[in-house]
Write a structure and sequence with these properties.
heterodimer, A: about 300 residues, alpha/beta, Rossmann fold, two-stranded antiparallel ribbon, about 50% helix, B: about 375 residues, 2 domains, 19 helices, 8 strands, about 10% strand
Chain lengths: ~300, ~375
């Protein structure tokens, strides 16, 4: 599937191996959607918040806050998700406090099958389907999901609940959550990878698990930090011959040879990933800026423009 | 031998920690490899489900049991170890099951626990479960096996402290006295959900069952009841693990890439290890961009490079000028990466005093034994 209609979904889950740039891609997707006039919520999952600072704002914490026109962020954590959900169930704050802020009950709740994940996912999915004045509250919810293993655990929660919980409110919630997650019209799981051996291998495995094990609709695969093609093979050979030259030529030639080699390895890995996942990738440029901020996110969003 | 390997000499256990994607697995394997090269019996234990270590060691797949890296794999990479290198992958669920089997009073109790849905969640999916079992496995290996060095590649925790706190957190629940009292009627009388609703504890339980459904409550009750007799054994073992981690024969190795987040995480971990009295053997700044322009002033412009390039290639013209312009840009960008990396390496060095090594970004990924050996040479 191409990513052409990605931003028309209601829910885009972004995941991948640790350190590949999931938050950057999430922030850039939000920025692109906002440029197209959409109201976007970016949800991080019990993380050290990164998206809001990247966009130039303060961290939102557990309360949704607008960081840029059209873009709001939130960091969903289990404690606040529990509180919100429990209050919806028991309605009265005093009862909530008496029951749920009891230490023993807290212990108890930890052992309830995947309760934390359920509540966090539930809160996010609730935002994705909530409406006000007859229209969706958000045109798009982007989930900056945890890395590989934890993401599979998080996204697998509704199914796991459907398998293990025979009835009751948790099961009813699991049912609508699974329906939303697995609906290819409303939802897509986008992957982020790097053009390096191990991330490519892991991305391909993750892609297969999302498709087969979780049976969720797969979105585009973003290939982050792709070096530019700057030198022809002939130029590279010429430069290799002068890496030992005195400055300035020697160091410049060495930097160029390193860059060209990096580009070559990256291209080979990109080809491998494309083959493994069986669909086109969305390459994103390796940025030279040594600070990650709104400018960098804008450049990534620029690069996405026209590709998704 | 670099500062890190030197600092690990005489250690029996190395625990490699850091955020995800910084090369922990490769560093772990390289440490174990260098011990094996020097004549030791070394084991590297990874928890990484992506099987990357297996690939690097030419083992195909890794299981919950230790496998010897075959001599052919070394020969292929032109290495001749004087000792032996073993590798294994931690299977979290299996480790839990083994632990239950070890502590269960009889086969019937063991089977009831293994079949309980709450147990299956606790052992498979509960946050911190991986970390707990990594520590448990480490303890088992270090007390029951005869390795000169065991290197533990830890899970890519999103919360570094899970490592140190997860065992207590999980055991606090299963052994909580108040929980046991609260759920006691159920523990004694099977269908606990129904019993509890009628019993005097009603208010809390009634509210909870509206929240989770009463079947879930009864599963928890069953689980707690079955676990009752085993709690002390578990607790004792967890405390032995903690004690082990404070011994001088153990060394924690912090790994970070030169990125602000990764360094933050490593330093956060460092402080907590210090506070917990756990010995830090050293720190690794991994994949650092080399400094190619250690001269005062900025990188050279296209004109300066163009002149030298024309002389070297014995050609001039627009082609050379264009190439020189790209070279100037590439060197400038390269130095941008190098400067930002150097800043983070320095922050790491200051924040985690002690042995520190900076490993340059190596050509290509580390994906075989010779790659690991090249990495080890920097440690």
């Amino acid at each position: 599937m191409s990513g052409s209609d990605l931003l028309d979904r209601r829910l885009v889950v972004v995941t991948g191996k640790g350190g590949v740039g999931k938050s950057t891609v999430s922030a850039a997707l939000a920025m692109l959607a906002a440029r197209r006039g959409k109201r976007v919520l970016v949800a991080e999952v019990d993380a050290r918040e990164r998206v809001a600072p990247m966009l130039g704002g303060r961290p939102s914490g557990p309360v949704i806050r607008e960081v840029l026109p059209g873009i709001s962020t939130v960091d969903v954590d289990p404690r606040h998700a529990l509180e919100e959900y429990a209050l919806m169930v028991v309605k009265v704050r005093a009862i909530y406090q008496a029951v749920f802020e009891n230490r023993v009950v807290r212990f108890f709740l930890r052992a309830v099958p995947s309760l934390s994940e359920t509540l966090m996912l539930g809160k996010i999915l609730h935002e994705a389907r909530s409406e006000s004045h007859g229209r969706p509250r958000w045109d798009l919810v982007v989930v900056d999901a945890p890395a590989t293993g934890h993401a599979v655990q998080l996204l697998g929660v509704p199914r796991a609940l459907l398998d293990t919980v025979p009835g009751g409110p948790l099961r009813r919630d699991a049912e609508w959550m699974q329906a939303l997650l697995s609906d290819p019209v409303r939802t897509a799981v986008a992957l982020v990878s790097l053009p390096e051996e191990m991330p490519v291998t892991e991305t391909a495995e993750l892609d297969a698990r999302i498709g087969k094990e979780l049976a969720l609709p797969r979105g585009p695969v973003f290939l982050n930090a792709m070096p530019r093609e700057l030198y022809t093979e002939g130029e590279r050979d010429q430069l290799r011959a002068v890496v030992g030259a005195p400055p300035p030529l020697g160091p410049a030639a060495r930097a160029a040879v390193l860059q060209a080699e990096q580009r070559e390895r990256a291209s080979a890995q990109a080809a491998r990933l494309r083959e493994l996942v069986g669909r086109p990738l969305v390459p994103l440029p390796l940025l030279a800026s040594d600070r990650w901020g709104r400018r960098a996110v804008e450049r990534i969003a620029d690069a996405m423009e026209g590709q998704i | 031998m670099g500062a890190l390997l030197h600092s690990l000499e005489g250690k029996r256990v190395a625990v490699v920690v850091g955020s995800g994607g910084v090369g922990k697995t490769s560093v772990s394997a390289a440490i174990a490899l260098s011990c094996a090269m020097e004549g030791g019996r070394a084991l590297v234990c990874t928890i990484d489900p992506a099987r990357r270590l297996a690939t690097a060691l030419g083992l195909g797949t890794l299981g919950n049991a230790e496998a010897l890296v075959p001599p052919e794999a070394f020969a292929r990479s032109g290495l001749a170890p004087r000792g032996q290198l073993f590798a294994m992958m931690l299977d979290v669920k299996r480790t839990w099951d083994d632990l239950v089997a070890r502590h269960a009073p009889d086969a019937a109790t063991r089977d009831r626990i293994l079949g309980n849905r709450v147990y299956q969640q606790v052992s498979g999916a509960l946050a911190g479960s991986q970390e707990y079992m990594a520590m448990e496995k480490l303890y088992e290996l270090s007390t029951e096996r005869d390795y000169d060095l065991i290197v533990l590649d830890t899970p890519p925790t999103s919360h570094a402290l899970d490592f140190l706190e997860a065992p207590d957190r999980i055991l606090d629940f299963v052994g909580n006295e108040t929980a046991r009292k609260l759920f006691a009627p159920a523990i004694d009388a099977g269908r606990f959900g129904a019993r509890l609703l009628q019993a005097g504890t009603g208010f809390v339980a009634k509210t909870l069952s509206r929240f989770t459904g009463s079947d879930v409550l009864s599963d928890v009750g069953d689980f707690l009841g079955q676990f009752q007799g085993m709690y002390d054994g578990f607790k004792e073992r967890a405390s032995a693990v903690r004690t082990l981690l404070t011994q001088p024969e153990v060394g924690f190795v912090l790994v970070a890439s030169p990125s602000p987040l990764s360094v933050d995480e490593a330093l956060f971990f460092h402080d907590h290890l210090r506070k917990a009295g756990m010995p830090v053997a050293g720190a690794v700044s991994n994949r650092v961009t080399p400094d190619l322009w250690p001269f005062p002033g900025g990188t050279p412009g296209a004109e300066a490079i163009s002149a030298a390039l024309s002389a070297a290639l014995a050609s001039t013209g627009p082609g050379t000028e264009d190439l020189a312009a790209r070279l100037a840009l590439t060197l400038q960008e390269h130095q941008g990466f190098a400067r930002s990396d150097a800043r983070e390496v320095e922050r790491m060095r200051r924040g985690a005093p002690g042995p520190h090594v900076a490993v340059p970004r190596l050509e290509g990924d580390v994906h075989d034994l010779s790659g690991l050996a090249a990495l080890a040479a920097h440690l």
